[in-house]
Design goal:
The chain has two domains: 177 residues, no CATH class; 51 residues, no CATH class. Helix content is 60%, strand content 0%. It contains 13 helices and no strands.
């Protein structure tokens, strides 16, 4: 009987764990009448996961080729296996943070990432609600890893493992974790903030595994508002059919570009943060947060 590759075995165990945890959470939610799950929303999550899998599969060889080609121009190599993997996971997690930050602060990328945030529910299947077109450009954010001597296969494996961790933190159940853990690693509480549409929580906690990047770069926020979290987008699409769920933000972006005066303003709509407008008719998350803070100070 052929033996299973240790890497494949580890991934299989993690995937099975995620499936089991999802079924347990789904069952508990139903048993306790918490309404964490909604049938259509869950089916949408599965649908988007399926599309992302197809896109991933379609570009798998191109992704491997690009990373492997860049690896031949590597600057150095880390010989110690423990240091190699520790550095790879930390560096990959940081570059994911950069990718994720870009997805929130550049409207062109937000138009693709927005699908992951479009659910008004938050549960383990929300982690499956993929940024469907991310595989088309994700490789370019990870090119530095290949140049620093990490092989294409190892980069893809590290991404897969950290992605599975990122899925597990999509839960509304309060998991008892030691305080030190939340200073270093992303917790469900941190990620609930990330999926919230409450103004103070917008564009916070971008980390996949490590929360230290958010603490270092000013995008960290505790789950500490008196009002409950409202999940989803600040402006939910009116129609969430199988096509519109993917392209509603593209439609809005192109509509804004069409009505913007001058080439410069049209270009700025693509690269400025979501909410930016040439005439101030809409506002970015940072402006909304600044106004919220000012109004809070006045009320106090």
């Amino acid at each position: 009987m052929p033996s299973i590759n240790p890497r494949n075995e580890a991934v299989l165990i993690l995937v099975c764990l995620l499936v089991v945890l999802t079924l347990i959470e789904m069952g508990l939610s139903y048993w306790e009448d918490r309404k964490f799950y909604e049938k259509r929303d869950t089916l949408t999550n599965i649908y988007l996961t399926g599309l992302a899998f197809i896109v991933n599969l379609s570009v798998k060889f191109a992704t491997f080729f690009v990373l492997d080609y860049a690896w031949h121009f590597r600057f150095f190599e880390i010989k110690n296996v423990w240091l190699y993997w520790l550095t790879l996971v930390i560096a990959q997690d940081f570059l994911y943070w950069v990718l994720h930050y870009t997805g929130h602060y550049c409207r062109l990328f937000w138009a693709m990432h927005v699908t992951h945030h479009s659910s008004e529910h938050f549960n383990l299947t929300t982690g499956f609600r993929s940024t469907v077109f991310e595989p088309l450009y994700r490789v370019f954010f990870y090119l530095p890893l290949a140049l620093f001597g990490f092989s294409a296969l190892d980069i893809l494996y590290a991404y897969l493992v950290t992605q599975l961790y990122g899925n597990i933190v999509h839960t509304q159940y309060h998991v008892p974790l030691p305080k030190w853990y939340g200073w270093i690693f992303v917790t469900p509480s941190h990620h609930r903030v990330h999926h919230a549409s409450n103004i103070p929580y917008l564009d916070k906690n971008m980390g996949m595994v490590l929360i230290v990047w958010d603490r270092l770069f000013g995008t960290f926020r505790e789950e500490n508002l008196p009002e409950p979290i409202k999940y989803g987008l600040t402006h939910q699409p009116e129609y969430t059919g199988p096509v519109n769920i993917l392209f509603h933000e593209w439609k809005a972006l192109l509509r804004d570009v069409k009505h913007a005066p001058g080439f410069k303003n049209k270009l700025l709509y693509f690269f400025n943060p979501p909410g930016w407008s040439h005439d101030g008719s809409s506002q970015t998350a940072r402006v909304l947060q600044r106004e919220w803070e000012e109004s809070s100070e006045i009320s106090d």
